[in-house]
Specification:
- The protein is built from ten helices and twelve strands.
- By secondary structure, the chain is of the alpha/beta class.
- A six-stranded mixed sheet has the order 6-7-8-3-9-10, sandwiched between helices.
- The two termini are 32 Å apart.
């Protein structure tokens, strides 16, 4: 399978430190890639670089074989769409208007939205399950409903790369599973390249084809979730003890506990940093 996003030595330096530190990534279409790590590991920062929103301090990113930041911003927006975890809802927009913003990279002052754009917006509303909200304002929606609207806006953008920062944020359990199943289907059936920053390791086990684990801005493991998310790795990267339960015909489930002592946590983290 070809590589869609190829990053080498990606570094983002801010506030006197490297938030992302020399990251190498190869991300393929038709897969869900989960970016994992504790708070402050650099997940959101890496996603913004891969989305073409923020340029790295050093390192290179290419998409479909071409320098990502050598492209015009409009060109990048036709390829990649980013859904951030706390997208603003202050603007007095209806859901329909908010989702229609996804067509901006494809329209201009000379060519406003046409029938085809309207059809794509309607389809995005339907796929994300928010058609019933179309006439409501963003401010009137719950956090979970807004999250689905922002997903619809990204889908209306008709991207080939969809980047999701904590896509299950604000969602109840059923909605979390439904949303992840949706993006997994889009990757599998439509060949979409999906990159999602996740906190829930069981979600990564259940829906990701590939995982990248960050610790203090560095990649410490990558590969298939069942091979990467071992008790030893989880202890080192998250500071908890983990038990992985295998299930016949289904993905494994991970249970977590606090470590028996602070010393155990420090030893695990020390092993990871070597």
């Amino acid at each position: 399978m070809s590589v869609m996003i190829h990053g080498r030595g990606v570094t983002v330096h801010r506030g006197g430190r490297d938030i992302v530190d020399g990251v190498d990534v190869d991300i393929r279409p038709g897969q869900v890639t989960a970016v994992l790590g504790a708070n402050g590991a650099g997940k959101s920062t890496l996603l913004r670089v891969l989305a073409g929103v923020d340029a790295p301090t050093s390192g290179t990113v290419s998409v479909e074989g071409a320098d990502w930041f050598g492209r015009a911003r409009r060109s990048r927006a036709r390829i990649a769409a980013l859904v951030e975890q706390d997208a603003a809802a202050e603007l007095p927009l209806t859901v329909l208007a908010a989702v229609s913003l996804g067509r901006i990279p494809w329209t201009s002052a000379l060519r406003g939205p046409g029938t085809a754009d309207e059809a794509l917006v309607a389809d995005a509303l339907s796929v994300a399950g928010v058609t019933a909200f179309a006439a409501r304002t963003l401010a009137s929606l719950s956090g979970g409903e807004r999250q689905r609207v922002h997903l619809a806006r990204a889908l209306a953008q008709t991207p080939r790369v969809l980047l999701l920062d904590e896509p299950t944020n604000h969602l109840d359990v059923r909605a979390q599973l439904t949303s992840l199943a949706l993006v997994s289907r889009l990757a599998r059936d439509d060949g979409l390249c999906v990159v999602a920053a996740l906190h829930d390791l069981n979600h990564a086990m259940g829906f990701a084809d590939h995982v990248i684990v960050l610790h203090e801005g560095r990649v410490v493991a990558s590969g298939a979730p069942g091979e990467v998310l071992t008790p030893a790795l989880i202890s080192a990267a998250w500071g908890v003890t983990a038990t992985v339960f295998e299930r016949e015909g289904r993905h494994p489930v991970i249970a977590f506990d606090l470590p028996s002592s602070a010393e155990d946590t420090e030893l695990a983290a020390d092993r990871l940093s070597r």
